[in-house]
Amino acid sequence: MYFESKGKAEVTYDAIVVGSGISGGWAAKELSEKGLKTLMLERGRKVAHGEYPTANSESWEDPNRGRTPTAELEKHYPKQNRTGYTVNEFTKHWWIKDSDQPYGEDKPFDWIRGYHMGGRSLLWGRQSYRWSPMDFEANAKDGVAVDWPIRYSDVAPWYDYVEQFAGISGQNEGLKQLPDGKFMPAMELNCVEKKVKSGMAKSFKNRMMTIGRAAHLTEALHNRGTCQYRNRCIRGCPFGAYFSSLASTLPAAEVTGNLTTVANAIVTSVIFDDKTQKATGVRVKDANTMEEKEFFAKVIFLNASTVGTTSILMHSTSERFPDGMGNDSGELGHNMMDHHFKVGATGDTEEYRDKYYKGRRPNGIYIPRFRNLGTKATKKDFLRGYGYQGGASRTGWQKTVKEMSYGEEFKQALTQPGDWRFGINGFGEILPYHENRMYLNYDVKDKWGLHTVNFDVEIKENERKMREDMAQAAVEICEAGGLKNVKPYERVYNPGNGIHEMGTARMGRDPKTSVLNKWNQIHAVKNVFVTDGSCMTSAACQNPSLTYMALTARAADYAVSELKKQNL
Amino acid sequence: MDRREVLKLSSALLGYTIVGGTAAAVLSGCKTDASVVPADLDLFDVSTYDLIVDVTERIIPATDTPGAKDANVVSYLHNRLKNFSTKEESSMIFEGLKLFDSKATAKFGKAYNDLPGAEKDEIMKLMQAEASKDDKHIFNQLKQETVVGFFTSEVGATQVLRFDPVPGEYIGCVDYSPEDKVWAL
Ligand SMILES: Cc1cc2nc3c(=O)[nH]c(=O)nc-3n(C[C@H](O)[C@H](O)[C@H](O)COP(=O)(O)OP(=O)(O)OC[C@H]3O[C@@H](n4cnc5c(N)ncnc54)[C@H](O)[C@@H]3O)c2cc1C
Ligand code: SF4
User: Per-residue pLDDT for B141 more than 60?
Assistant: First the structure.
């Protein structure tokens, strides 16, 4: 085949990392800093830090003020735009086209993604929270699914480590359900957020408000600039002020001289050697030329994101693994989780009309979980809990104009900020249900000849009960905060829409019921590590990416030490 | 050949698009006091174009700062209809716009565009009175879209609101006085 011109040595590395997003960036940094010749394979196009074409575009530079015409949305982005906020003229180059990348839905599932160097690290909302001891113990305690093979203490030093390198701003609060971290100075709350916070302090023992913990630099770090409060992060940050692979982990990996990156390289499967019972490398298809190649390494990190990685494993069939690599348990593709949300409350106030804010804070407030904390007072008729994200702001010219007249006074009125509004949105834990799954659709192939993915995922009774509580408790919070016109809201949530899909190759203690061990190794193929969201055994209610970072750094450290001991 | 075709043809011949006043000079043989629809606003005939330019300018007039006309809000409204409305929605809008003429004819016996300014304003007041009782009234839609088109335009954002592309800091609580204005974006 194509090794005629190239020797095998030229396509052989110490380590291969598949995917350049949040977890893959970390894997590449850790492995190459520890001296491994590392190859990063990314299916999307090459993008270098700073290549953010719309970072400085203004609305008026586009004839539709940035909105992508309906016909184009319907044709190319019908699923990517299900969030309602992700696809527009200033961001659309970061999202896959659904017209190119079809998937199936037995029940509605929103698979929102971008394929390019950096993956969704460029697009994420940057909210970064540790999991707590109770999150790692939850499955064991509740008798749900399987137990995590690790505890908070296993991950805590790695949270310290990744927080300090990524740069997370936030406030330590000493909560057992939301551990403190190594934070940069916190961003400020505004007047009305402070008002609600103090109202909450008077009314509740277990509910409190803190500023969002966000992966934004509030102090300089490495070669990155501090946040300039433009809130255009999703277009890419020219200052490198929020954590992304491009601004943070990949530059660190590159300076070692050990990293090679290849773009447009779709990893189609992992190669398994029956003799050694190890993986020897990966098969790759060039996204543009369709040329097929193989690359080899001693250790392989799969970081193609939850669905991407699980799909690669499912495509990696062999005599030993007829149902997909590492799938002895039959759990591969199952236990899909996300965070359910779109339920909360809003309220407003006539106070503080003489107060405003300066800057566009790319962050909001956080109300940590306050249900089922192990005390009688916090116990509810559902398992687990939820946290709220939200914030306060003054309305601008986007007021309701019906009651107002037109003309000079109207124009004048619109140049004045309106009343303050406050809103919170709950993010709740979804339990791992075996029957919530993704699977390969052998009838429909994509244009690269790979089987497409189908989703069969739904929320159940526990989540529905939780949602009722999420609306009601949100009302209580707004009322305790002294707000007026307090109203609950709930909109339909479809799984996937939280963009925290996870759990389809879970970690566990027993190879019969899980895919990965406590070091994120495939039980039966020890030199394959999976450290993206597919490894998650339960979902907690915090945004997950910080945990993926910590687990990745931890697994990379272990992989290198095992390599040195010649155990891999 | 009707006027718009003449315009399209001549702009094609000249190799550029005629916008606003320049067209008058180019087409010296034609009537010069009527306005000309820019070629890319192909959903609007002259009278619709004139109507929208007039009404949106009355909604957000130029004062000591620019108004809807300066911000070319008519072009925003055109693109809004063209790229974001279904056939039914846009025919409802065009249907709704006829209200201006039917009211003008009933009250003053002339089409809206042919009225002097003060009488146009009378019609605006009638529309506003109806709209305050009906969320879906065409006048509310026009107002809403005019506001969006205006404040997302360059003059609207940078000359009428406070524009601060790179704030550099976030301060949660600052004093506010009415001359400060709302932040753009
Ligand atoms: C709008 C938005 C807001 C979000 N907000 C938050 C938040 O506030 N907090 C939070 O914690 N999380 C948030 N997330 C989720 C977060 O982005 C993901 O959890 C995170 O990016 C997952 O990291 P990953 O490394 O697993 O995958 P990704 O970052 O998605 O990267 C995967 C990479 O693998 C590549 N790839 C896929 N398949 C292959 C293949 N076969 N071969 C080669 N390469 C492949 C992809 O192109 C991509 O570059 C948000 C996501 C979005 C979209
Ligand atoms: S808000 Fe901060 S992180 Fe976001 S784009 Fe602006 S400077 Fe960058």
Answer: yes
- From ligand 1's centre to the CA of A22, what distance in Å? 6
Q: What is the pLDDT of residue A471?
A: 98
Q: Which residues of A touch B84 (CB under 8 A)?
A: 64, 67, 69-70
**pTM, entire model:** 0.94
* pLDDT reading at B4 higher than 70: no
* Per-domain residue ranges of chain A: 1-126+129-164+244-335+434-456+501-568, 168-215+339-429+459-494
Structure tokens at B17: 């698009």
Residue B30: pLDDT band with limits 50, 70, 90: very low
| Residues of chain A found within 8 Å of residue B152, distances taken between Cβ atoms | 59-60, 65-66
For chain B, domain boundaries: 1-31, 46-160
Q: What is the pLDDT of residue B34?
A: 60
Nearest in space to A282 (alpha carbons), one of A326, A321, A250, A312:
A312
Q: Which residues of chain A have pLDDT under 70?
A: 1-6, 400-401
- For ligand 2, say whether the CB of A237 is within 6 Å of any of its atoms: yes
CB contact under 8 A, A194 and B173: yes
Which run of H or E residues covers position A13? strand A12-18
Q: Is the pLDDT of residue B162 over 60?
A: yes
Cα dihedral A195, A201, A204, A208 sign:
positive
Q: Return the pLDDT at B33.
A: 52
Cβ atoms of A158 and A550 within 8 Å: the answer is: yes
Among B87, B159, B170, the residue to mutate for chain A (most A Cβ within 10 A): B170
Assigned CATH for A1-126+129-164+244-335+434-456+501-568 = 3.50.50.60
CB B65 within 8 A of CB B54: no
Q: Ligand 2 centre and the CA of A28: distance in Å?
A: 24
Closest CA to B139 of B129, B127, B151: B127
Q: Is A115 in the pocket of ligand 1 (CB under 6 A)?
A: yes
Check if the beta carbon of residue A378 is closer than 8 Å to that of residue A371.
Answer: yes
The string of DSSP codes covering A293-337 is EEEEEEEEEE-S-HHHHHHHHHH---SS-TTSTTGGGS-TT-S-B
